[in-house]
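Hi all, long-time lurker, first post. I run a small reading group and we've been trying to get comfortable going from sequence to structure in the token notation. Rather than ask abstract questions, I figured I'd post a concrete chain and ask someone more experienced to write out its structure so we can walk through it together at our next meeting. Sequence below, copied exactly:
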Amino acid sequence: MFNLVHTANTQGLIFGFCYAISIGPVNFMAIRRGILNGFQELFMVGLGAAFVDASFAYIVFAGLSKDGIVGSLKLIIWCVSVVFLLYLAYSLFLEIREDPNATSAVKKQTQFIDNSFVMGFLIAASNPYTLIYWVGMVGTLQLSGNIDIAGGAATSFFSAVLVSELVWFMALGIAVHYSRNLFNRHMLKTITRFFGLLLFGYYVFMASKVVLNLIHTGGAAALPR
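-- Answer (accepted) --
Happy to help. Here is the structure in token form:
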């Protein structure tokens, strides 16, 4: 049991940190929010995403899901993800256009998800490959598969993943906070626009990828991002 807990702690820290620093929409959104609104908003985006990642890690480590989401449930979740991603792409596109009237309307429509924690949570949760990633990572640990044993260490794995990801977002937040002073207002506006375009591209790409996967494989398991 001690060896399992030790593995859960060490590997959870490694897996969580490596996943957190990967180039992707969560970091894009975190940096964008950090430039616009400061350290707290960036960290809250990271906290929302980290909670999702740690929860998926717990589910897989505890043996509650060995193959990810399959069957009709997967189809439903992936379809919801597509709709959500396209909705985010639409709202972000209007925001990037900098049309005051359109932006005001979008903010009213998206007010319920505009909270940074909620946004980070939803971006991570709407990625249909997140759970598949954790299935692959936990699979490398070659656990015995005994849920009673693994379940005790799963909490340690959850905590390790959560802590390691929060360490990354705290460091990122500090870096963005102090680097903001190196740029003038015009440059900061250009940077936020750039990350907005990256997010828009990700939303459209991921939605297309999910649709194509559902069409060609019927929802079969795909490789992680």
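A couple of things your group might point at:
Residues 2-217 form one domain.
The radius of gyration is 19 Å.
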